[in-house]
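Researcher: Go.
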Amino acid sequence: MRQFFALGLLLATFSMPAYSALNIGTVAPNFVTQASLGGKVFTYSLADALEKGPVVLYFYPAAFTKGCTIEAHDFADATGKYHALGATVIGVSHDDIEKLNRFSVSECRSKFPVAADPDQRIMKSYDAILAAKPEYANRTSYVIVPGGKIIYSYTDLQPDKHVENTLAALRKWAAEQK
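Model: Structure:
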């Protein structure tokens, strides 16, 4: 009986969404890195992006994997909704920039940039390392507002709620600004 209880507890632990390590209210670590938008490489600066409005920063394990492709499509489909709220989106993974050039066109549909973090400097600063496979990022989304404060964070390997949840957080924040 104890074995079944322990197994149930273990399964429940892995099936529940985890929570990202950086707390709401924390100032987001700034970063500058190479990114690709529409297959074109440029230098992305979080500080520069935040001068224009809120940023949805999401980490994903690896380009061209099933969940990451679904998530990229979801973010691409919602780009207009983010822009209507004055926000931009950037994805970050350990992939190299050459792979991200292809991913940015095919899976992100040239709608938002994806950034390279091959040394995991950004992932580590955001506590977005996948514990089971530390060479990959965990699927974590943050909403960061001008001034650099994190107002929302969410970690779950399932990609289906990241867009919905970050949009809800942005809508709430925008309503509070009025």
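Model: The chain is about 40% helix and 20% strand.
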